[in-house]
Amino acid sequence: MNQLALTESVTDQKLQCPPADDGMERFACPTPDRQGRYHCIDDHVLCDGFVDCPSAEDEDRHACMFYKTTKAHLDVLADALLRTSQKPSLNRE
User: MF terms per GO, please (predicted)?
Assistant: First the structure.
């Protein structure tokens, strides 16, 4: 898990995490650990049943219900778009 060493107040700025090695976006936990460091986590560890953020924000049951529902709908949409783009065109000239 990567950590950001931020010493200034984060209430006035958005935390930025470097992308993961595979290029995927990473997210900063909203609260620091005991040493004042902010953790960056990959999206695949959100709502996975394991605490990755110091105050367990990545496993908040209300946020996870919304996240999992939204992700499921987006996955269905992405699959439908992929299937549509792979079908041969019926209007060939």
Answer: transmembrane receptor protein tyrosine kinase activator activity
Residue 21 confidence (pLDDT):
87
| Residue of 74, 37, 33, 28 lying closest to 54 (CA atoms) | 33
Q: Which of 41, 29, 34 is nearest to 2 (CA)?
A: 41
The token pair at 6 is 């931020």
Q: CA-CA-CA-CA torsion for 70, 75, 78, 80, nearest 10 degrees?
A: -110
Task: Please report the sign of the dihedral spanned by the C-alpha atoms of residue 84, residue 20, residue 44, residue 67.
Answer: negative
Chain CA centroid to CA 86, Å: 28
* CA distances, 24 to each of 57, 69, 74 (Å): 20, 21, 17
- pLDDT tens digit string along 33-60? 999 999 999 988 999 999 999 999 999 9
Task: Report whether pLDDT(6) > 50.
Answer: no
